[in-house]
Amino acid sequence: MPLKALLLITAALGCAATPVLAKPKAETPATVTETPEVIATRLRDAALQSNAAYDFVAQLTTRFGARPAGSDSERKAAEWSAAELKKMGFDNVRIETFPLVIWERGAESLEITGPFAQKMVVTALGGSGATPPGGVEGEAALFETYAEFIDSKADLTGKIVVILQPTVRTQTGQGYGVNSGSVRRSGPEEAKKRGAVGYVMRSLGTEDHRFAHTGATRFTGVEGLPALAISPPDAEQFERLLKLQRAGEAAPLKLKMVSTPTVRTGGQSQNVIAEVRGSKRPNEIVTIGGHLDSWDLGTGAIDDGAGVAITMAAAKVMIDHSLRPERTVRVVFWGSEEVSQPGDLGLSGANAYARSSASDTHIAAAESDFGADVVYALALPRTDYADFNKTLGKVLYPLNIFIAREASTGGGPDTSPLNARGVPVFDLQQNGTDYFDVHHTADDTLDRIDPRKLTQNVAAWAATVWMIANTNVTFQPTNRK
Ligand SMILES: [Zn+2]
Fold first, then answer.
1. pTM of the complete model
2. 384: which DSSP letter?
3. Cα-flanking dihedrals φ and ψ of residue 84, to 5°?
4. Distance 42 CA to ligand 1 centre (A)
């Protein structure tokens, strides 16, 4: 059945249109004659009629708002989540803590002084350095692209570097990926090496609203170069001023920037872990999850309240239908995904989980961390179980999801430390065309989530995870343990 038809049915039942919490149903447990795909199909259809994911992300964002890594809000959200997971009937619910160096935003502003005087809309990059309280002033060194900045031999001593490179809109998020490592992560340090006193970049975003998109740069502490992102319209304003300069109609711009973040050592963050314990092979683990922390500007609805809600709800639908998988399905709400740490580290929660689960046998792992739009493809790791992909494809096609021809490679950020040690990762690929419109901005709020699209995600995750947890499938790269 096409997704549209399935959604029409759920709408007719009054489920999708009116968010209500799915009540636990005392359905008959699976009989031995039912194949995994029959039950996966049943779970898929049940997930489409449940609002568990939307209800969870609504409550999370309403009760706790923004959940910056290491904040009281992130900790309280973790404690509340653990209590909710217990109420839902998850097994082995626990919170695992780990140390964190906490970077906190201070005052921040950017203005052109002198000729063309005007204020810009900005936000500081996480982990970046501080100006004195009164700010720094310097001549602007404008570059249309990052490559132009790297190639330039211009003297940048005492200047404020401004990178105007846009983010290309794509379904896969590649337009963001190609910029985040260079422009945002390495840019400030490159500029500092060349004597600059500040770094300004066009936000990594695909919307032309006047919001700035934050995100982590390499952690330098307050001693590092102050670094700001400007909104896309402000970057375009700089582009026009650059043209005037090139036409000889404007002198170099004078800028004043203020950014006064603070850094606190001795902080702490945490992961929330819960399981649907396997009935036959409980020591074989399928780990799924999202990250509970968010940036401070919005309420972290699409990044990544949606991801924790989707993966939680995919496991919950099994509990609600009294269906216990043969392998253990483990849900992890990772902490502190967004922030960088001293020593070029980051992904503190993901690394803590990789350490605490080092002796576990992971069959596969996956993260939902790309918003709340529909899934259109499933990329699986290579497998010798030839029929697995075909069978799962039959369950997913009615949701408008195909099995990607290419094997999965990276997975989500929080599964990367697992993948690095050989755990196979899979990837339910979401449509990310609009994801970077609001990503890491004040606009990342609940209204951006379409409940029906969220349920399509849950249905896909529930079916996929059930099939992995109830067959003998194994993937490459195999677990080295
Ligand atoms: Zn995220």
1. 0.92
2. S
3. -65, -45
4. 30
CB 228 within 8 A of CB 200: yes
Q: How far is the CA of 240 from the centre of ligand 1 (A)?
A: 33
What is the distance in A from the centroid of ligand 1 to the CA of 291?
Answer: 6
- The amino acid that residue 36 corresponds to is P
Cα of 116 vs centre of ligand 1, distance in Å, is 37
Write out the two tokens for 6.
């399935």
Note whether 138 and 126 are within 8 A (CB): no
Cα 338 to middle of ligand 1, angstroms: 6
Tokens for 209?
Answer: 């609203």
Q: Using an 8 Å Cβ cutoff, are 201 and 143 in contact?
A: no
- How far is the centre of ligand 1, averaged over its atoms, from the C-alpha of 138 (Å)? 34
Scanning the structure block, which residue is given the tokens 């400030």? 188
* Distance in Å, CA 244 to ligand 1 centroid: 39
- Region 130-152: mean pLDDT is 97
Closest CA to 70 of 350, 307, 271, 305: 271
DSSP 8-state class, residue 167: P
Question: What's the rounded Cα separation, in Å, for the pair 265 and 212?
Answer: 27
For 183-196, write each residue's pLDDT tens digit: 999 999 999 999 99
pLDDT tens-digit series, residues 18-32: 333 344 444 455 555
- In the chain, where the domains are located: 3-102+265-469, 106-260
CATH class of 3-102+265-469: alpha beta
pLDDT class of 409 with cuts at 50, 70, 90: confident
**How far apart are the CA of 43 and the centre of ligand 1, in A?**
27
- Write out pLDDT tens, residues 351-397: 999 999 999 999 999 999 999 999 999 999 999 898 999 999 999 99
Measured N-to-C along each axis, helices 36-48 and 306-320 cross at an angle, to the nearest 10 degrees, of: 120
Alpha carbon of 448 to ligand 1 centroid (Å) = 15
Give the residue among 150, 156, 140 at the shortest CA–CA distance from 187: 150
Give the pLDDT score at 2: 44
Task: Kindly report the CATH class assigned to 106-260.
Answer: alpha beta
Average pLDDT of span 4-20: 37
pLDDT tens per residue across span 80-104: 999 999 999 999 999 999 999 999 9
